[in-house]
Amino acid sequence: MDFINETTAITGLADTIIKGGVSLYNAIKYIYSLSESDFYNVNIKDAFKVVLNNITDTDSLQALGLRINDVTCGEMQNDEYNRVLPLIVYSFAVRIPTLKTVRVNDDCMSDDQLYRLYNAVMEKGAENYNDLIAETFLETKYLVRKGKKLPPFTADWYKTYIYTCVPSLAEITNKNMFLLGFSDVLFAMFYSCLEEELKNKMLEYTADLPEETK
Question: Cα–Cα distance between 128 and 107 in angstroms, integer?
């Protein structure tokens, strides 16, 4: 793809993916906090709307009065749960080859550009801890090249990690069941919005320069 500035485009797209990962990571904590004292004061639909309309705003839910602290989500304030963030970013990174289907002026990103973007995201801290996520960059690339449908983006790996590595969230409690229920919906909807955001960014980085700057 003929970007105005390829380095700027790769860096910008990588930053969007990283910010999206942090935003989803924080959103899980913020929405989990709804099961505390604020549960009946905030409409869950409003929380979803704020998150999905601001997917690169890592703290958008503060606007609803929600807070991340040891009281509202103490079960998530530990080293084990912190690994969720690099896992989220990795789950986004392995799907970078899907950007090959985005065409601008009958042009698309080259395999080299996609690989550079993947490496840029990985270098910023993405990690597949214990190979928890089965998808890989190369497998996604193969499916896209063959025109095959990708598996849906789900929270399955997240729930597996919770059950195996975060015992404080694996107990059968109202709060934890609430967490697992909304994560299924949040992950799918968030990834769909991230795809649109990345497409918009690509359009931005390939927009024609003003005549006086050419």
Answer: 31
> ∠ CA(22), CA(139), CA(55), 5° rounding?
20
Q: List C-alpha distances in Å: 68 to 104, 166, 190.
A: 40, 18, 20
Sign of the dihedral through C-alpha 41, 46, 48, 50: negative
- Say whether pLDDT at 212 is over 50: no
The residue type at 135:
E
Question: Phi and psi at residue 127, in whole multiples of 5°?
Answer: -155, 140
pLDDT of res. 47: 84
Q: What is the pLDDT of residue 41?
A: 67
CA-closest candidate to residue 20, choices 200, 195, 205, 212: 195
From CA 45, how far away is CA 170, in angstroms rounded?
25
**How far is residue 60's CA from residue 54's CA, in Å, rounded to a whole number?**
7
C-alpha distance from residue 23 to each of 9, 53, 55, 213 (Å): 21, 11, 6, 35
Residue type, 131: D
Per the DSSP assignment, residues forming a β-bridge with 104 are: 107
Give the Cα separation of 34 and 72 in Å (integer): 8
- pLDDT > 70: what percent of the chain? 94
